[in-house]
Amino acid sequence: MSQANQGIKAIFKQREALLAVLVVVMIGLVGLRAPVFVSPTSLANLLTDSTLLVMLALTQMFVIVTRGIDLSVASNLALSGMMAALLASKHPELPLAVVLLVAVAIGLLLGLINGWMIGYLELPPIVVTLGTMSVYRGLVFVLSGGAWVSSHQMPADFVAFPLGRLLGITHLVWIAAIVIALMWYLARYTRFGRDLYAIGNEPASARYVGIDSARRLFWTYGLSGAMAGLCGYLWVARYAVAYTEIAYGFEFTVIAACVIGGISIAGGSGTVAGAVLGSLFLAVINNALPIMKVSPFWQSALTGIIILTAVLINARGNSKGSRQILPLHLVNPSSSRSAA
Amino acid sequence: MLVTQVPTPPPVLQLSGICKRFSGVIALNDVALTIRAGEVMALIGENGAGKSTLVKTLTGIYQPDGGTIHLGGQAVKFTSPQEAMRAGITAVHQETVMFDELTVAENIYIGRQPTKGFPPRIDWELIESEAEKLFARLEVNLPVRARVKDLSVAQRHFVEIARALSQDARVVIMDEPTASLSQREIHELYRIIGQLRAAGTAVIFISHKFDEIFTVADRYTVLRDGCFVAEGALCDITETDLVSLMVGRAIHQTFPKLDVDIGTPLLEVESLCHPTEFDQVSFTLRQAEIVGFYGLVGAGRSEVMQALFGLSSNVTGTIKLNGQAITINSPNDAIAHGIAYVPEDRQHQGAHLSLPILHNITLPILSRIGFFLRGRRLQENAIARHFSEQLELKCSYLTQNVSELSGGNQQKVVLGKWLATNPKVIILDEPTKGIDIGSKAAVHRFISELVGRGLSVILVSSELPEVLGMADRVVVMHQGHIKKVFARAQATPENVVAAASGSELPSEEAAA
Looking at beta carbons, which residues of chain B come within 8 Å of A210? Predict the structure, then answer.
């Protein structure tokens, strides 16, 4: 038993490496069947396509690390995206930077509403964000009156920005790279980031060491919301259309990417690399399956199976032992736990 | 032991008149405690004497209802654990304040990590080098980058002690720190306590083990039933005197113990073993007998009972019922054999708080009443009414939710539920924990009636008077083993407490 555990632990420890290898192997295998998939253009497109998922998964990671969940991201994204599109179409004279800031600010505000209810009112995250998920989605409809904002209504620079290039790389990829660096810094080098891990590990103990959990949660959901706002603009501009059903159900893809990336839904553990690789993994699958001519129904089922496998690996890594009551020196050394 | 110097330094911590009540129950009543720098004070008392409450009051988790705390000569009031920590009082708990997924170094500095530069970034080099210095000071070899979840219990204690050191703690409280340490680790801990003492830190050491107390501590304070009893230097007192200070009371409560004829062996347990929880547990329960299980918290009593009820895996040994070997792999098996288990934690394991009384009582026997709802309504009602009347349940109506009842009445519902299964053996795990005196008496009366009707009872309790007052025999467990079995006549408070503490006091011959 202990050997099997060791084996699983070893895999668990190198989970990020394993995921990275898996992503490369999958790209290779699909390339064998459909060489077009591994052409530079196709891979560049794949990268650009995965950016929104990567960014949202990163902030969702922080939320999940605190033992929470943010189901409202996709609705938030749709609402801020729609508002950005409406603003840009009504006031084409506004500079792009202003529109972008407005989108982020709206997203932040919507996220802080979640954070206020979860942090200060101590309501359960799943209920709060389930509620706001519907509210925000409903507001998209109310604001737009159910109408589309299509590309010809949007200013040219608004639509062109995400796929514009700097040094041959799309702005989307640049933004995602900056976000990854920022989130990595946040997770590793700031009190804010470290406190979130402490809160997720032991909420009660976190209070004992003086962490203001309510304030931390407030801003964690705010961060998730701000990212949804940023991605709201990018999504609308990238696909050059805003409508009520934008990113419908995308929150589950985001959460799935986190789970695949090894972020424990029970809180307290998860890495930036995990979230990024989990997202890339899903992006590769979602792009490869249609090329492999797998039916959309099977795609959905396969994604589900992959998530369950990831959860299973997580659970095996975290199985808890029984209490140690017998004095350790009397216990047979082979059965005693391994002391580091 | 140190010889106390003649000109004693001023007390670093002085508590006087501390009172704490929880919804009417007095947990601490006029408790005093004085400790000087560089002194190790043993805080002694039975389970429920108020030691943990006192620790929580000191560390700011509870606020006292009365009394004063002086730290270094100044009156202080802690409204939160952080304030106590900042003032220099830290506790090494049984349940440690630890973050499993974080590294050793980070656990020491969590919540107050040093930062540098702009934008401020956490200075990991400094954190790790400081942590290494702390462990070097403690002469403990611990990798500062290891994750706490990979550490042993002893190593976790060292991390907490390092944290206390890093905060220049003036008072370090150790609440049963040796509970699950090996002999070698205990000696390591002794050495560290010696270092703390040499550095002028005051240490409050809570333990039930007299050999430890006499090895590390200079002075003692005894609590009993939430009251201060005695204080003094350990070199002036013997183990026997200390035990009588702890338990020294006439048992005021009277127990409705009936004289019943104890019959033939009903349940025989032989060599019950579990890899980590208990070892070689053997005992016999006879018809219409009450066997009390006494021991310190965490001695493995509940774990044995859970194994008997089929809740544990990896259990070896034989269980015989009426002379026939039976296998119990699940609670269903146990219920089928007529064994019922009323767990300690009635809020989570015992009752379904959001269900009505009626459905709580009939839950384990639904399959006997019948599958379809319609036909069983009347029968369910009759059964529930029968047991609630028997137990003097105070409720407005039987469809009331259990969550609306008082603790004592909730316990009666749980008892009624298991009685409805018509058991031969009923295991009661701390049946009167946290309930008021009136309900306690009702539960005790009820236990007597049960054996009067021929049931056999295993009574697991941490309340000494209850065990001594109710049980025909007392089994004392210590660190997962059965330490001694006392017949009713031999079960004096002193003997039982000494056995539970693992002490080898000369005592009368243990009965079979």
Answer: 80-82, 85, 111-112
- Single-letter amino acid code for the residue at A207: R
Whether the CB-CB separation of A105 and A136 falls below 8 Å is answered with: no
Which residue type occupies B410? Q
Is residue A103's pLDDT more than 90? yes
Of B79, B83, B101, which to mutate for an interface test with A (greatest number of A Cβ within 10 Å)?
A: B101
> Residues B218-256: pLDDT tens digits?
999 988 878 888 888 888 888 878 877 877 654 455 677
Common-topology check for domains B11-247 and B265-348+422-500: yes
Is pLDDT of B274 > 90? no
Residue the block writes with tokens 């216990």: A331
Q: Are B126 and B168 in contact (CB under 8 A)?
A: no
Instruction: Write the DSSP string, B293-362.
Output: EEE-TTSSHHHHHHHHTT--SS-EEEEEETTEEE---SHHHHHHTTEEEE-S-IIIII--TTSBHHHHHH
The mean pLDDT of B380-390, rounded to a whole number, is 78
Number of Cβ within 10 Å of residue A11's Cβ equals 14
Burial degree of B317 (CB within 10 A; 0-12, 13-18, 19+) = middle
Measured between CB atoms, does A262 come within 8 Å of chain B?
A: no
Tokens for A300, please give them: 């959905």
A282-303 core/surface letters (b: 16 or more CB in 10 A; e: else) = bbbbbbbbeeeeeeeeebeeeb
Cis peptide bond N-terminal to B119, omega within 30: yes
Tell me the domain boundaries of chain B: 11-247, 265-348+422-500
Q: What is the average per-residue pLDDT within B346-364? A: 71
Q: Which residues of B touch A337 (CB under 8 A)?
A: 152
Distance in angstroms (rounded) separating the CA atoms of residues A241 and A235: 9
Closest partner residue to A326 (CB to CB) among B115, B150, B279 is B279
Which of A191, A324, A337 comes nearest B122 by C-beta?
A: A191
Cβ contact, residue pair A189, B150, below 8 Å: no
- Domains of chain A as residue ranges with CATH: 40-316 (1.10.3470)
CATH of domain B265-348+422-500: 3.40.50.300
Q: Which of B195-204, B209-218, B359-368, B427-436 has the lowest mean pLDDT?
A: B359-368
CA separation for the pair B157, B174 (Å, rounded): 9
Superfamily of domain B11-247: P-loop containing nucleotide triphosphate hydrolases (3.40.50.300)
Burial of residue A323, with CB atoms counted within 10 A of its CB: 0-12 exposed, 13-18 middle, 19 or more buried: middle
| Of B27 and B217, the one with more pLDDT | B217
The Cα–Cα gap between B55 and A215 comes to 29
Residue of A188, A205, A320 to mutate, testing the B interface (most B Cβ within 10 Å of its Cβ): A205
Structure tokens at B310: 């089929």
Residue of A239, A186, A166 lying closest to A59 (CA atoms): A186
Residue B214 pLDDT > 70 = yes
Across the interface, which of A209, A322, A324 has its CB nearest the CB of B111? Answer: A209
**Average pLDDT, whole number, for chain A?**
83
**Under an 8 A CB cutoff, do B122 and A198 touch?**
no
Q: A327 CB near a chain B CB, below 8 Å?
A: yes
B83-137: pLDDT as tens digits: 888 888 888 765 567 888 888 898 888 888 888 888 888 888 898 998 898 888 8
In chain B, whose CA is at the least distance from the CA of A324? B276
Query: How crowded is residue B185: how many other Cβ atoms within 10 Å of its Cβ?
Result: 21
- Chain B residues in contact with A201 by the CB 8 A cut-off are 99-102
* Angstrom distance (rounded) from CA A108 to CA A84: 14
